[in-house]
Amino acid sequence: MNDTHPILARLYALKDADEAREVYDAWAADYDHDTIDDMGYVAPALAAEALAERISDGATVLDAGCGTGLVGAELAQRREVALDGMDLSPGMLERARAREVYRTLEIADLTRELAVVDDAYDAVICVGTLTGGHVGPGVLAEFVRITAPGGAIVATVHSHVWEDGGYRAEIERLAGEGLVSAEVWERPYHVREQMSCRLCVLTPQ
To answer: Where would one find the signal peptide in this protein (predicted)?
Structure first.
């Protein structure tokens, strides 16, 4: 992994939700420029394309860890959906709101149980959140809980935490218990930082 951008080292070493909120609030104004222009952040487009292929117009979708709304904007170009967003950072949510593609936006800590009823969504998408110093693999079971059977969960997992962070093991557990079927591919993430991710597609059973 080639962490050439100065903010990445701090991001991958976040200690708790309060620190994460502080860092992302401060970064919100420059986030799109830094990630897309400087880092070559392609994961939002790749994940949105994967989800668009698996849902129909009119689907209800949760963008979990929506940030400034990059994923929402990409998805809105491909499907007409009822899109809700959640993020820890009020600053990021303000940027997402300005895109005018979300039905609702709210503050949420993905390390805790979500205030969402079972089977509430047709799909969940989560990009850029399952990485070092951020949300752990336990959130995948929450995504399964709130996604209707036969729906779609599309998530990127940064390659450097795929094994050691327990994400591969958690997906294998969910599949082994018959809770999901799973497909996983290695895909680009930050092309200028030479970083990859696992693009994970889970189908709740």
So the answer is: none
H/E segment holding residue 200: strand 195-204
Q: How far apart are CA 48 and CA 173, in angstroms?
A: 25
Contact 5, 193 (CB under 8 A): yes
For the record, the structure tokens of 74 come out as 């990409």
Domain that holds residue 76: 6-204
Do residues 151 and 122 make contact, with C-beta atoms less than 8 angstroms apart? yes
pLDDT tens-place string over residues 75-128: 999 999 999 999 999 999 999 999 999 999 999 999 999 999 999 999 999 999
| Tens digit of each residue's pLDDT (9 = 90 or more) over 155-203 | 999 999 999 999 999 999 999 999 999 999 999 999 998 999 999 999 9
Question: Residue 172: enclosing H or E segment and its boundaries?
Answer: helix 167-176
d(CA 121, CA 67): 19
Q: CATH no. for residue 172? A: 3.40.50.150
Residue 19 neighbours by CB distance under 10 Å = 13
Alpha-carbon gap, residue 161 to 36, rounded angstroms: 22
